[in-house]
Amino acid sequence: MAVVDPWSTAGMDFLLGGCAATCAGIFSNPFDVIKTRQQLQGELGDQPGTHRNPYRSIFKSFQSILKAEGIAGLQKGLVSALAFQFTMNSIRLGIYQTAENYEWTRGRNKLTSLLYSIGWGGLSGVIGATVACPLYMIKTQIQATSHGKYAVGFQHNHAGTFDALARIYRTYGITGLWRGYPGIVTRTAVGSSAQLATFSQCKEFFVQFEFFQESVMATAFVASMFSGFFCCVFMSPFDVIATRLFNQGVDSRGRGLLYTSVLDCFSKTLRAEGLHGLYKGFVPNYWRIAPHTILNLTFWDQFKSWKDLYY
Q1: Are 247 and 144 in contact (CB under 8 A)?
Q2: Pairwise CA distance, residues 135 & 79, whole Å
């Protein structure tokens, strides 16, 4: 049987990674909107006691968004969110799959190495986040936008994804589109390492059993459930920091009004809101990450199995 060069299908691996994430993003975006609002509510302790908390729970968040913005509010920022998912994950999953094709994630015993998987998961996440950074910033700012008592955080009031990109570029130049970049790099490096490493390890464990050997879908589904949990636990504090860095207002020179760096945001949030502040939005974040991880990685493995039928 002919041996297929791993590089010959590399382009397809990148495309399938982006398509899988885009499909998952449609279902997970409402929880992403809620997560963003909860992370900004009571930022640095400014709101509690003086304002109502319209996003104090998932149920209350759904209720508040529907009342203020209708059903469309639950899919706020969908265009930029899907563009981010496709761009970031086509690169992230494509690079990671290439590493797996060449067995760079395996040790000398040819079994998946947790350390190598963490390293390649983090590296692929950093590269993907670097390219897709402007889209994440726009997604965050659009998702945070509301009005009246439902508005939390700085309100940028963009008309849409393309309007936001054009306004920021005209005002602050190309560097303005990468403002807050250290936040997303840290977030994605931690999240991607935890997600892909645990997914690979769990898959390798479950395929030892006959039931999972017969079903790509079942193996990917169960492995991604575990992967989503670990991803959420490790990534949540960095997700809060990324959201706040991207959504904060800026001065005429494009400098943040509240935070100057990842460390500054971390320390200010911890002092003002305690450890709870770094885990704000954890529940909707889990409900976003877990289904998104399940759908993303299950779609990804299923797409790859279909690709293998033709290559």
Answers
A1: yes
A2: 9
d(CA 64, CA 60): 6
Rounded Cα distance between 273 and 35, Å, is 17
Structure tokens at 85: 């998912």
Alpha carbon 273 to its chain centroid, in Å, reads 23
On the 0-12 / 13-18 / 19+ scale of CB atoms within 10 A, 18 is buried
pTM of the predicted structure, to 2 decimals = 0.85
Taking the CA atoms of residue 71, residue 73, residue 76 and residue 78 in that order, the dihedral angle to the nearest 10 degrees is 0
Interior CA angle at 8 toward 198 and 217, to 5°?
40
Contacts of 43 (CB under 8 A, 6+ apart): 152, 153, 244, 258
CA distance 46 to 42: 6
SS3 309: coil
Phi, psi torsion values for 62, nearest 5 degrees: -55, -45
Task: Note the pLDDT tens digit of each residue in 171-181.
Answer: 999 999 999 99
The CA-atom distances, in angstroms, between 116 and each of 56, 124, 204, 222 are 39, 12, 14, 22
The set of residues, in sequence order, having a beta carbon less than 8 Å from that of 310 and lying 6+ positions away, is: none
The two structure tokens encoding residue 109 = 């015993």
Given a contact cutoff of 8 angstroms between Cβ atoms, the answer to whether 183 and 172 are in contact is no
Section 282-305 average pLDDT: 77
Task: Compute CA 200 distance to the chain's CA centroid, rounded to the nearest angstrom.
Answer: 19
- Give CA–CA dist 85/83, Å, rounded: 6
Mean pLDDT, the chain, as a whole number? 87
What is the separation of C-alpha 219 from the centre of its chain, rounded to a whole number of angstroms? 23
SS3 221: helix
